[in-house]
């Protein structure tokens, strides 16, 4: 019978229906501060956030590429690197690539030097290079191992010879760097030093231009050129900076007996102010007046050749 049912669900609740007094704290929580507004680049839904991520990705990519292998592509550049005995870890050949004399030569040299030849999908080589202009071939080159400046100085001392070292300032063209390395090796120099920043580094282009001499001549990186120059001074080196209008010329300066550092700036900027002030001697190269200047590699070759001649004369006396 209705009303006599003992089930719990049939009992009428004692509290009345309707709105309760107060907001239950909702209004108070709504008035609570939410803190400062995040920057646009920190809001994941904002376009500025995407630009920030892209910027970080590019910066990260530059750092990674500096410490990873370099990939030289194209049949002529790859063959030139292999002929110059540039260190390499792998020769990549895209499947289905048509054979010609250059490809056959590249594979033959790689096999002779013990460089592994690996066939890859063309799409994979496209992805590695970022384009399709690789001609179906790529050569992986490991990062160059730079010498330490202190070890370079100590190594020269052990030879018992008067050291002859080239320091490059403001040289950003890897071909110039490669040519300077080649000239330094050809005329009996003991090493080349470049700054860590705002300078060309030893890349595949440098290797090719040096004609393989980068494998035998030490190249060192200096964190601070002026401190490096001071260290050479303490080791008994004369610091000679090439500068138009210097107090000496190549005809009047004797570089055949004492240890010497030749400092060469770029054709346009020349030597940095502090580097110039840190040189013991500023020397110019005599040449026709209507010729404005020489690039770094030509200037280095002229000076190194003359100093090598002076040393041969001094050694024969």
Automatic annotation (TrEMBL):
One annotated Gene Ontology cellular component of this protein: cytosol
Gene3D superfamilies, sorted: 3.30.1330.30, 3.40.1280.10
UniProt superkingdom: Bacteria
Pfam family, one: SpoU_sub_bind
Keywords: Methyltransferase, S-adenosyl-L-methionine, Transferase
Domain RNA 2-O ribose methyltransferase substrate binding per the UniProt entry, residue ranges: 71-147
Ranges of biased composition (kind: Basic residues): 9-19
Region entry Disordered, spans: 1-69
One annotated GO biological process: methylation
Sequence similarity: Belongs to the class IV-like SAM-binding methyltransferase superfamily. RNA methyltransferase TrmH family.
Protein's name according to its UniProt entry: Putative TrmH family tRNA/rRNA methyltransferase
Source organism per UniProt: Corynebacterium lowii
């Amino acid at each position: 019978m209705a009303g006599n049912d003992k089930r719990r669900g049939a009992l009428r609740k004692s509290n009345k229906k309707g709105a309760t007094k107060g907001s239950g704290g909702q209004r108070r929580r709504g008035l609570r501060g939410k803190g400062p507004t995040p920057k646009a680049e920190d809001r994941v839904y904002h376009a500025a956030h995407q630009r920030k991520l892209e910027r970080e990705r590019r910066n990260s990519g530059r750092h990674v590429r500096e410490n990873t292998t370099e990939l030289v592509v194209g049949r002529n550049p790859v063959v030139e690197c292999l002929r110059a005995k540039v260190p390499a870890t792998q020769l990549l050949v895209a499947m289905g690539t048509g054979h010609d004399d250059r490809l056959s030569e590249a594979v033959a040299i790689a096999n002779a030097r013990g460089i592994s030849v690996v066939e890859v999908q063309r799409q994979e080589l496209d992805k590695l290079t970022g384009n399709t202009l690789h001609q179906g071939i790529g050569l992986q080159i490991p990062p160059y191992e730079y010498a330490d400046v202190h070890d370079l100085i100590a190594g020269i001392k052990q030879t018992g010879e008067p050291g002859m070292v080239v320091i490059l300032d403001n040289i950003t063209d890897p071909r110039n760097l490669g040519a300077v390395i080649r000239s330094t090796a050809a005329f009996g120099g003991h090493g080349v030093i470049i700054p860590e920043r705002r300078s060309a580094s030893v890349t595949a282009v440098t290797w090719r231009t040096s004609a393989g001499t980068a494998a035998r001549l030490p190249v060192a990186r200096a964190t601070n050129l002026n401190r490096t120059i001071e260290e050479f001074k303490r080791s008994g080196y004369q610091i000679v900076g090439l500068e138009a209008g210097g107090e000496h010329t190549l005809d009047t300066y004797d570089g055949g007996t004492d240890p010497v550092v030749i400092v060469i700036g770029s054709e346009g900027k020349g030597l940095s102010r502090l580097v110039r002030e840190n040189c013991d001697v500023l020397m110019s190269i005599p040449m026709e007046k209507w010729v404005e200047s020489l690039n770094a590699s030509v200037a280095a070759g002229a000076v190194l050749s003359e100093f090598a001649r002076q040393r041969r004369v001094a050694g024969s006396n």
